[in-house]
Amino acid sequence: xxxxxxxxxxxxxxxxxxxxxxxxxxxxxxxxxxxxxxxxxxxxxxxxxxxxxxxxxxxxxxxxxxxxxxxxxxxxxxxxxxxxxxxxxxxxxxxxxxxxxxxxxxxxxxxxxxxxxxxxxxxxxxxxxxxxxxxxxxxxxxxxxxxxxxxxxxxxxxxxxxxxxxxxxxxxxxxxxxxxxxxxxxxxxxxxxxxxxxxxxxxxxxxxxxxxxxxxxxxxxxxxxxxxxxxxxxxxxxxxxxxxxxxxxxxxxxxxxxxxxxxxxxxxxxxxxxxxxxxxxxxxxxxxxxxxxxxxxxxxxxxxxxxxxx
Amino acid sequence: xxxxxxxxxxxxxxxxxxxxxxxxxxxxxxxxxxxxxxxxxxxxxxxxxxxxxxxxxxxxxxxxxxxxxxxxxxxxxxxxxxxxxxxxxxxxxxxxxxxxxxxxxxxxxxxxxxxxxxxxxxxxxxxxxxxxxxxxxxxxxxxxxxxxxxxxxxxxxxxxxxxxxxxxxxxxxxxxxxxxxxxxxxxxxxxxxxxxxxxxxxxxxxxxxxxxxxxxxxxxxx
Amino acid sequence: xxxxxxxxxxxxxxxxxxxxxxxxxxxxxxxxxxxxxxxxxxxxxxxxxxxxxxxxxxxxxxxxxxxxxxxxxxxxxxxxxxxxxxxxxxxxxxxxxxxxxxxxxxxxxxxxxxxx
Lengths: 310, 222, 116
What we know:
The structure holds three protein chains of three kinds. Chain A is α/β, with parallel strands linked by helices.
């Protein structure tokens, strides 16, 4: 088993297991219990937990502080970091701060535009972009150097991830874009929520044709639908989301109080199907404000118990 | 050109309500082309200011003048002999002209009559769109002649982001995704493989980030 | 036809209403006109394609400015008719006349007279 960092997620993947990650959104306040409660719901069912970084540009408790709490609970956190809010000085500084608490995973993102959030009049930074953040972390880890060229004492040991949206336009550059992220140094990928399985498989074929699945671990993004309303919202309002009509039809076909169960069932079926797709290395289950359902999904999909790699 | 947009008349009225003798000063360059601060807009604003004051029973004199440029010493000198008769000047030039006026006529209050918005082009009559952010080190050679710094809401150098949908930006369906345009152009040029070149971290020291900028050309200086 | 219309209306002839600028209308108000209305060809019938549409937009700009400075945007109006519609011309003139009678004189005119 060849691993470059102490990350549990990396070990699970390197050992050839299908990995399971999930995410927690930090609270809009300073109560540490919120994050701990969410973590306790899922900790035995996942290998690592992402903490989102002011997702949809809504101000929340910082990702780094929430990651530290998870780390202290014995979990393997994935620090999500967007380039929207920090320049290259702050990004490198936060990476070192995370490394000082032995946070071993990072997900490099550009971040939703601030116009979606609670401070649409704010400035955005975008000093560097997500690909350049990937390069930055890899340089800090592998060469032990800051962007400025100076040596880092005790460089960060982070397993470096990136996001991929197999459904955004233009579709023809979706595989080249992944190739570019791999070239930048991404070691794992967590995809956008997948509902259009056929299109995802088409993308995966393109990924395999270029041998990218052998260079990067691809975790398929899964978000269970709570209701037909949510499905319609995702389809019509969330940029870059591809929700086929048959999902909406299936959810509309059951009574309102059964739609949540149906959503979970669809999610489990999708995981079952994607487990068979060559190149899918695991699943990233984003149960948005519905963390209590993660155990049910993980068990239902036959991904429980989680392997012991420590 | 520099694109500007007219300030609401009520805002200008509020700024200059204490003055009796005002010069409304236009500029014959960019702001004339974008119909925000040329001779005609000077006439309209001056007329409105006159009528407003008269209607309130205030006696004011509002003169109109339009210079060839407000960003050049020689043209600004044209009004030197009469600047002292004015209590204030409303300049309809871009932010550059307003400041150059203020520097030159140090003791005369200057008020901006337009909001300077961006460096852009006239797509059609009445529609101007941004093209350049004057970042100081042009990358258009690598991006198919389309600037992601000016035209991508996240100024991504390695775009598009995941929010691009049917060629439109995630922030607004009326905004083109710059990276979609870049990819289409690279395709038309037969250079789509260039897309996979990673764009290096940008040197923003040539941008506003490096502080106020200066171009010094000793070869043309006298 | 010998149609009657109010006598206090002064007609300024232009080749096309597209020639009428915001500034022309504002100047008239500045000089004391109580109202200004532009009578163009029917929309879709402009010999220069869009002259009367431009005129309408300019009248709207003038209305906005007059409202902002407290003179009353209603004092500026746009009408459309064809050259064969004499009775309609007289009707619009009467309508405008009555509108102005209702609004009273242009306050600028009163101020000017006070000052003089």
